Fold this sequence. Notes:
alpha+beta; conserved putative lor/sdh protein from methanococcus maripaludis s2 fold; Elongation Factor Tu (Ef-tu), domain 3; CATH 2.40.50.100; 4 domains; six-stranded antiparallel β-barrel; four-stranded antiparallel beta sheet; 24% helix; 44% strand; elongated; transport
Amino acid sequence: xxxxxxxxxxxxxxxxxxxxxxxxxxxxxxxxxxxxxxxxxxxxxxxxxxxxxxxxxxxxxxxxxxxxxxxxxxxxxxxxxxxxxxxxxxxxxxxxxxxxxxxxxxxxxxxxxxxxxxxxxxxxxxxxxxxxxxxxxxxxxxxxxxxxxxxxxxxxxxxxxxxxxxxxxxxxxxxxxxxxxxxxxxxxxxxxxxxxxxxxxxxxxxxxxxxxxxxxxxxxxxxxxxxxxxxxxxxxxxxxxxxxxxxxxxxxxxxxxxxxxxxxxxxxxxxxxxxxxxxxxxxxxxxxxxxxxxxxxxxxxxxxxxxxxxxxxxxxxxxxxxxxxxxxxxxxxxxxxxxxxxxxxxxxxxxxxxxxxxxxxxxxx
Length: 365
């Protein structure tokens, strides 16, 4: 099959080249006639940045216990109501103890009598009218009487339920006159003056985890409230399945709004530092690389300079720059897509502010 090749005459190629040169010169002339592009700029500033991790956690009371009994006995008196706040060592429940009270009086009498006999024999031994063996026997009787008294007091104590710490009792599960057995639940007691918040974070944050890190917690029950606390402890091992580590924080609960078992959304702040900050709209992303247009003063005018920057972290509307900028420099926030590297720009500002922008930025001492 025959193919025909078309050869462009040399004069045509020369003509096309001249046309391209004329178009480029015309564009440059138009740009010069149009003058500098008006832009908006911002000054690179230094601000506090913190890394953050988000998690879900469950609230636990600072102290929590289920109150039960140790003996099988009948309830004679209840000294609390549902949801009541009680003090430490306050008596909550009394059970039948008539027999133990009588035994207590009997043993107290036996102890007093044993003590009286011991003192009498000690005087006789001192006078030489009694033997040491009789003294040892009376000492044994006195010690045995004291032991029996302690045992009776212990049994009597088992028939009274006291609050081990100050807090709020839950719902009452028994009534006066009920027969209870060991392990029967009477009520719950929680110390909710402050709450424990347990949650997990990925192990990649382990180098930044430490005590006293601040947290902010929210819950759907109180949508408009933020509860602030801090980390108090970190687990000693990473979960081999989830590759996460357990963290515990403490939240003050002076208003008693938080309850045990509530689900909380947590923001944990770590690695606080100072860094250079610009607005996110100043970035010009090209693939995986970010650029900004810097308005640099040159010969009494501002020249756009395209500069590559490294973004360290982001937050709402702002980015932290770790490389590529210096504090006090001005970056273009609006109009960056209409200027080219090396082209003059005009800051849309008042006369005094525009004159100040032309001056080189001064570094902080």
